[in-house]
TrEMBL record, chain A:
Keywords assigned: 2Fe-2S, Iron, Iron-sulfur, Metal-binding, Oxidoreductase
Protein name: (2Fe-2S)-binding protein
SUPFAM superfamilies, sorted: 2Fe-2S ferredoxin-like, CO dehydrogenase ISP C-domain like
A GO molecular function held by the record: oxidoreductase activity
Residues of the 2Fe-2S ferredoxin-type domain: 1-77
InterPro entries, per the entry: 2Fe-2S-bd, 2Fe-2S-bd_dom_sf, 2Fe-2S_ferredoxin-like_sf, 2Fe-2S_ferredoxin-type, Beta-grasp_dom_sf, Diverse_Oxidoreductases
From TrEMBL, chain B:
Keyword Translocase: no
Any single Pfam family the record assigns to this protein: CO_deh_flav_C
Source domain of life: Bacteria
Domain FAD-binding PCMH-type per the UniProt entry, residue ranges: 2-183
Keywords: FAD, Flavoprotein, Oxidoreductase
Protein name: Carbon-monoxide dehydrogenase medium subunit
InterPro entries noted in UniProt: CO_DH_flav_C (IPR005107), CO_DH_flav_C_dom_sf (IPR036683), Diverse_Substr_Oxidored (IPR051312), FAD-bd_PCMH (IPR016166), FAD-bd_PCMH-like_sf (IPR036318), FAD-bd_PCMH_sub1 (IPR016167), FAD-bd_PCMH_sub2 (IPR016169), Mopterin_DH_FAD-bd (IPR002346)
GO molecular function, one term: oxidoreductase activity
Keyword NAD in record: no
């Protein structure tokens, strides 16, 4: 069957088998390997992508079900050379160790901040509770997301103001 | 790599279209909503449909509305495609049926809740599933539509056993109706090993208080401990009594005797009986407290 969807702002049309899972379509057909494939049982959350802005576990969504929808993967977070504040936050606060859970964590964080720009630490923990970091680096992941909440894109781009704050 | 066996996929455009597709493709076709039960079963070959009928475009079944069905009977009508996240975030649901909000907080995880639907949860009929107990306790009615029209089923009629419902192959669950009662309160509590896991055990209760403050109407249900949800033995001793700690203790004791859990990786029988006891007391306490607080503030 043929599906058409928008992924990271680009329209794509592909011929697929109906049984292909969204995670494999993204990784194998579109060669966007930033989306990781983990437990295959909707437990670990490393395969999280945004479908119409909402985080979903792409190992438990058929590519066919994404037909006509808008998908954002980790490759779509940055705007050219400008990192998403969430990505910057993971750098600033050491939100990743081995990096395996990172793409899913960052996309969930992006959706959380779009929905709730100033989450409490407990709300961040709740939001990422469907995801597993086997390095157990949760404290730094929560701090990374807090950093992103405190540095929304508008402020991050405005470097002059940033410098004034530092001065 | 877990991949389902081959199947053909078709997306339904309306309820009528979904029913026509079920009719056309026959017994080897299955409806998929959120897919978080069916797709894992298909990966493991526990389900192997030839046709998958995707009903995610049936936005007409994604609604929450308060309606009057009889002169003095109001109900909350929940469309079968209403997502868990929608139920969790609804102020009306929290106000009228806090048991639903309690349960939704501990169903799977926030990301799975973005996809999962109430209709899918009820139709999956997993004995450890939380919303099924909630709907039994709230005396919800399932509205099922088929070629011959609609039929209304009590939850006892709807759930025939583990993984089995009264929904025929050519029918679709389209709505869940929950009666709204005055002076009522409800609560759900679950013990799970970790976020997103199925219950080791869970309990739900719904209570309506009589004008003299005694328990007028009550339902208590248990999840994952080998019962058809409702604990009728407990309900019988509660009706007409004043809600006291002694009464809750007796209810808990009866619940621990009435349940029939199995030892598995989630715990031994003794532990699960202990949970049935403790959780029954807790949800009754919370439901009665909420019922008392709701008096004089019910607005529809």
């Amino acid at each position: 069957m043929q599906i058409s969807l928008t992924i990271n702002g680009t329209d794509v049309t592909r011929e697929i088998e109906p049984r292909v899972l969204l995670v494999h379509f993204i990784r194998d057909d579109l060669r966007l390997t930033g989306t990781h494939w983990g437990c295959d049982t909707s437990n670990c959350g490393t395969c999280v992508v945004l479908m119409d802005g909402q985080p979903v576990k792409s190992c438990t969504v058929l590519a066919a079900m994404a037909d006509g929808h808008t998908i954002t993967t980790v490759e779509g977070l940055a705007d050219g050379a400008t990192l998403d504040p969430v990505q910057q936050g993971f750098m600033e606060e050491h939100g990743l160790q081995c990096g395996f859970c990172t793409p899913g964590m960052m996309l969930t964080a992006r959706a959380l901040l779009d929905h709730n720009p100033h989450p409490e630490p407990l709300e961040i923990r709740e939001a990422i509770s469907g995801q597993i970091c086997r390095c157990t680096g949760y404290a730094t992941i929560v701090r990374s997301i807090q950093w992103a909440a405190e540095h929304p894109l508008v402020a991050a781009v405005d470097t002059t103001e940033d410098e004034e704050v530092r001065a | 790599m877990q991949i389902p066996a081959p199947f053909d996929y078709v997306r339904a455009s309306s309820v009528e279209n979904a029913l026509a597709l079920l009719d056309r493709h026959g017994p080897e076709s299955r409806v998929v909503a959120g897919g978080h039960s069916l797709l894992p079963m298909m990966k493991l070959r526990l389900a192997r449909p030839d046709w998958l009928i995707d009903i995610n475009d049936l936005f007409e079944l994604d609604y929450l509305l308060i309606d009057r069905v009889l002169v003095d009977q109001h109900v909350l009508r929940i469309g079968a495609m209403t997502r868990h996240t929608t139920l969790l975030e609804s102020d009306d649901v929290q106000r009228l049926f806090p048991i639903v909000t309690d349960a939704e907080r501990v169903i799977a995880d926030p990301i799975v809740r973005n996809r999962g639907t109430i209709g899918g949860s009820l139709c999956q009929a997993d004995p450890a599933e939380d919303l099924s107990t909630v709907c039994h306790v709230l005396e919800a009615v399932a509205v099922v539509r088929g070629p011959a029209g609609e039929r209304m089923l009590s939850m006892a009629e709807f759930h025939r056993g583990p993984y089995e419902t009264a929904v025929a192959q050519n029918e679709l669950l389209i709505e869940v109706r929950v009666p709204i009662r005055e002076r009522s309160g409800s609560a759900y509590e679950k013990v799970e090993r970790r976020v997103g896991d199925w219950a080791v055990a869970a309990a739900g209760a719904s209570v309506s208080l009589a004008s003299d403050g005694t328990i007028g109407q009550v339902a208590v249900g248990l999840t994952a401990v080998g019962l058809d949800r409702n604990v009728t033995e407990v309900e019988a001793v509660l009706v007409g009594q004043a809600p006291t700690e002694e009464l809750f203790t007796e209810a808990g004791r009866l619940a621990s005797i009435a349940c029939d859990p199995l030892t598995d990786q989630r715990g031994p029988v003794d532990y699960k009986r202990h949970l049935a006891d403790e959780l029954t007391r807790r949800v009754l306490r919370a439901a009665c407290r909420r019922a008392a607080a709701s008096v004089s503030e019910i607005t529809i």
